[in-house]
Amino acid sequence: MRAPRGMDVRPTSDRLRETLFNVLTAGRPNALDDAVWIDAFAGSGAVGIEALSRGAQTAYFIDSFRAATAAIRENLASLGIEEGFEIHEREAVTALRRLESAAVTCDFCFLDPPYADNESYEQVLDLLAQSQLLKPASIVIAEHDKRFDPGEKFGALVRYRRLDQGDTSLSFYRLG
User: Fold this and answer.
1) What is the band of 9 on the pLDDT scale with cuts at 50, 70, 90?
2) What is the mean pLDDT of the segment spanning 163-167?
3) Contact (Cβ atoms closer than 8 angstroms) between residue 57 and residue 84
4) DSSP string, 70-135
5) Rounded mean pLDDT, 7-24
6) I need a labelling partner for 143 at 20 to 30 A (CA). Which of 75, 116, 126, 166 fits?
7) Nearest Cα to 90, choosing from 64, 117, 51?
8) Residue 10: pLDDT over 60
9) CATH architecture observed for domain 14-21+32-104+117-143+160-175
10) φ, ψ for residue 123 (rounded to 5)?
11) Residue 96 confidence (pLDDT) above 90
């Protein structure tokens, strides 16, 4: 899978991606069937593409970096994926607001800002906590550096699990 060059682009490892999807489907093997997936700060798009390959109906890829959206398009094309996705080349908060205004609701929202951009975690999680993008059963997953804690609670959005793997962590949130 092609990934854009740059210090801020750090594709989610294959091992972490596998762990993520194993957690999401544990006890619910069809959890991704017909799901709507948002991949914010998508980079190469690997996580959203994996969601599509596991049965998600739609994936929304969000990245403000032109090289990233080009890589996503290239990766989708190389896999023969021609439908079931939208690519939004803009800042995450702006793109999420646009999706909300278009009445999109998601089952899963994955966010993976550059690790040095701690402010983006708070901005996006705060927005999601107040938005109509989430349904009562939606799950928000934040990938982050193990040494950084994005927070336990953002309004109604509450972390229910943190999983550490190597230097990386996944924080799982849902409406509480």
Assistant:
1) very low
2) 94
3) yes
4) HHHHHHHHHTT--SSEEEE-S-HHHHHHHHHHTT--EEEEEE---TT-HHHHHHHHHHHHHSTTEE
5) 78
6) 75
7) 64
8) no
9) 3-Layer(aba) Sandwich (3.40)
10) -60, -50
11) yes
